[in-house]
């Protein structure tokens, strides 16, 4: 499916879900269990959203039953809810989420891939890798690339292939590059140096490659990002802030504490140049570890 078609499909489904949620709120919904089993897609979607909001894990069995709904919005929201609420039932939820990777609708498949970033289920690696390579929807490929980052070292070669694929969309390649930043340094398939050499000057992907390489131990790359901060676009600046925010979580770059001043400098330059990025920059800066 073309990028424009996929985005339009996503927009329409989002509008459908939002409309059902608002309609349900106006109708003062009944008990979630009753709504989930009502057969009414509007009530079911609204109940699923409420379960996520309340972090109510007690209804996970009812949520999983909705994977078989004929309504795309219900299936999509049920899969999303399973990702948020199914962590205590991985053995039951994991195989069902893997099955939903084969749903005929691309957005249901996307939600399944994204749910598998929250539900850690090792047998999902093979199917996710397959969808990264061959799904006809770029949104699903991007979500699969992102999900594989939560299984570091399990599909490194496929992620490198995707990142190096000039025929792939940049949106998908960025997620692959980001996931490669979580690859163990001692992974025998880790070829980050070659990826940097090939893409470091790419106007669309170079900064993300540099930050992924920095996260896996190439300290020189943070200086290169700092040198680019004064000329990067606002779009790239936003991506850089996202990447810095991400590597404040596990796995952290091995030299993070030693490079805090450089990272602060990057964030401050972005905030100075792009006023709309200042709240984002402030949030990321506040997360930096204190270094005496």
SSE series: HHHHHHHHHHHHHHHHH
Shape: globular
Describe the sheet with the most strands.
Answer: none
State mean pLDDT (0 to 100 scale).
91
- Figure out the total of helices: 17
Q: How many angstroms does the end-to-end distance come to?
A: 52 Å
Binned, the helix content reads: 55-70%
Radius of gyration: 21 Å
Strand content: under 5%
What structural class do helix, strand and pairing data support? mainly alpha
- Residue stretches low in confidence (pLDDT < 50, at least 5 long) are none
Q: How many extended strands?
A: 0
Could you please describe the fold and organization of this structure?
- The chain has 17 helices and no strands.
- With 292 residues, the protein is mainly alpha-helical.
- The protein is globular.
- It starts with a helix and ends in a 5-residue tail after the last helix.
Chain-wise SSE layout:
Elements lengths: L2 H24 L5 H5 L4 H14 L5 H6 L6 H14 L4 H11 L5 H13 L6 H10 L3 H11 L7 H9 L5 H11 L11 H8 L6 H10 L4 H9 L5 H13 L13 H14 L4 H10 L5
How do you describe this structure in short?
This protein is mainly α and 292 residues long. The protein has helices at residues 3-26, 32-36, 41-54, 60-65, 72-85, 90-100, 106-118, 125-134, 138-148, 156-164, 170-180, 192-199, 206-215, 220-228, 234-246, 260-273, 278-287.
For the structure shown, list the relevant keywords.
292 residues, mainly alpha, 66% helix, 0% strand, globular
């Amino acid at each position: 499916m073309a990028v424009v078609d996929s985005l339009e499909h996503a927009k329409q489904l989002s509008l459908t879900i939002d409309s059902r949620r608002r309609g349900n709120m106006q109708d003062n919904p009944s008990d979630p269990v009753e709504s989930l089993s009502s057969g009414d897609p509007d009530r079911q979607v609204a109940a699923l959203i409420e379960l996520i909001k309340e972090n109510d894990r007690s209804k996970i069995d009812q949520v999983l039953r909705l994977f078989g709904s004929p309504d795309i919005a219900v299936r999509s929201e049920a899969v999303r809810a399973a990702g948020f609420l199914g962590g205590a039932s991985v053995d039951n939820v994991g195989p069902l989420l893997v099955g939903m990777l084969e749903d005929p609708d691309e957005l249901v498949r996307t939600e399944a891939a994204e749910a598998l970033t929250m539900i850690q289920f090792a047998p999902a690696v093979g199917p996710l890798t397959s969808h990264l390579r061959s799904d006809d929807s770029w949104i699903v490929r991007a979500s699969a690339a992102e999900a594989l980052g939560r299984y570091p070292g399990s599909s490194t070669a496929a992620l490198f292939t995707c990142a190096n694929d000039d025929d792939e969309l940049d949106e998908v390649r960025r997620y692959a590059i980001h996931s490669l930043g979580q690859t163990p340094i001692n992974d025998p398939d880790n070829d980050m140096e070659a990826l940097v050499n090939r893409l470091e000057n790419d106007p669309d992907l170079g900064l993300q490659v540099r930050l992924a390489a920095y996260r896996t131990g190439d300290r020189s790359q943070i200086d290169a990002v700092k040198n680019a901060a004064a000329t990067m676009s606002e779009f790239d600046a936003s991506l850089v802030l996202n990447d810095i925010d991400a590597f404040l979580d596990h796995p952290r770059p091995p030299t993070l504490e030693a490079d805090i001043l450089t990272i602060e400098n990057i964030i401050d330059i972005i905030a100075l140049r792009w006023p709309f990025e200042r709240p984002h920059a402030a949030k990321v800066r506040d997360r930096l570890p204190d270094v005496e």
